[in-house]
Amino acid sequence: MNAKAGSLPLPEIDIEEFRKVVRTRRSIRRFTDEPIPEAVLEDCLELATLAPNSSNLQPWEFFVVRTPELKAELAHACLGQNAAKTAAALIVVVARPDSWRAHARQALEDWPEEKLPPIVEKYYRKVAPIHYNQGPLGILGLAKKAAGLAVGITRPVPRGPYSNCEMKIWATKSTALAAQNLMLALRAHGYDSCPMEGFDEHRVKKLINLSGKGLVTMVLAAGRRAENGVYNRQYRFDQRQMVHYL
Ligand SMILES: Cc1cc2nc3c(=O)[nH]c(=O)nc-3n(C[C@H](O)[C@H](O)[C@H](O)COP(=O)(O)O)c2cc1C
Question: Smallest Cα–Cα separation from 223: which of 18, 66, 63, 50?
Fold first, then answer.
């Protein structure tokens, strides 16, 4: 990557094209038999991983299931939902609360510019190992929480993650953003998706050989939308209920 990448001129962006992608994305419950070309899937997955993520530690993994046998078993683990049964591909989107240490090392190795800024080196070598390490049985997390509570009386301090449970939330936030990029990318390519949390996580993890620490954030059903793929008109609650201008 160019060291001056940040100063490259920005391309013109058509808001109407973006609006079309966002507005036509729906959760699709039935897909046609048409497969998704490999190049399309690869592009969508690359766009997914360009999602913003905490400390650029990229705490995610994607398992793309296309073989009919495994897909059928996975659809069964997704409680037999039509979206899963008819999808051309099922993508298991996994959050990794446990990959931060290896990824912090990798971030130093993969730094895309010739010179590693000292502040970046300090962050990945010293700050991150304190910030994300919860210690055996979460003891370090508890100590950090106590210290944070004391110091926090007089100045702003980070209020977590202070436990292994909060590390799950930490990893899931970034992973969900990647999942959204993936769904919008599929839409931009003319394909569709359905995010699903209706699944048996124990069975899903077994089917994809996922170790204990990985969390299945969503299973995404993906494919070409069938004519009867949308079950109802899209609606949202009144913005005034949800958006607060302060
Ligand atoms: C985390 C999450 C889990 C979901 N789980 C399911 C699911 O298991 N099955 C399903 O049919 N839809 C599922 N959905 C889709 C929602 O029902 C859908 O997004 C919502 O009804 C709004 O419809 P729209 O996506 O078409 O705008 C899920 C969506 C999200 C974000």
Answer: 66
How remote is the CA of residue 29 from the centroid of ligand 1, in Å?
A: 10
Phi-psi label, residue 193: left if phi above 0, alpha if psi -120 to 50, beta otherwise: beta
Tell me, using a 6 A CB cutoff, whether residue 26 lines ligand 1: yes
Distance 246 CA to ligand 1 centre (A): 30
Q: What are phi and psi of 83, to 5 degrees?
A: -55, -45
**Nearby residues of 242 by Cβ (< 8 Å), 6 or more positions away:** none
Residue spans of the domains in the chain: they are 27-227
**Ligand 1 centre distance from Cα of residue 232 (Å):** 12
Q: Which CATH architecture group holds 27-227?
A: 3-Layer(aba) Sandwich (3.40)
12-55 residue pLDDT tens: 999 999 999 999 999 999 999 999 999 999 999 999 999 999 99
180, two tokens: 């959204």
Q: How confident is the model at residue 212 (pLDDT cuts 50, 70, 90)?
A: confident
Residue whose C-alpha is closest to residue 201's, from 65, 97, 78, 96: 78
